[in-house]
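quick one before i forget lol
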Amino acid sequence: MSLKRTMSPLVWSVTLLFLGIFFTAPVVADDGRFSFGRSIEGTYILDQHGETGRSSYTFTEFGSVIWGASDQKHYSYFPGAGVWKQTGERAIAVRILSFDYDSNGVGIVNMTFNFDEEFRAVNGVFEGKIYPMDVDVNNIDKEPMESFKGDFTGVRLTAGWTD
């Protein structure tokens, strides 16, 4: 009987420990760190006022962005990719890279996106510079060959067809 009494508290402690881990694990794994990312995840169609026309930005939940524009043939650049980070309650900073620019440069565009309360509409500003192809994109040590800036408005792309 003494073994039974010794094992009971041990079994009880281990059981409580596993139940505690089991019931708190989802809370730890889903602690809200990416709730903002889930809110903006998707594609937005922007009208960029200034140097460029319409463009699309697709945001992932975890901080990546893919970009394409209607005027890329005119300006001789490829679709770009980049990163985003949250800077406010409904705001993000974005950095996009795009290569080529007549085979001699890389475009680096910094943007600020401000979302409405439902994350359906967006507005903001952008500023871009074109550097020689060999620039260190994380530690820019060269003068830009060109620069541009403007503002934009846009909407989130939704699934479904309209006639």
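fyi The longest strand covers residues 121-132.
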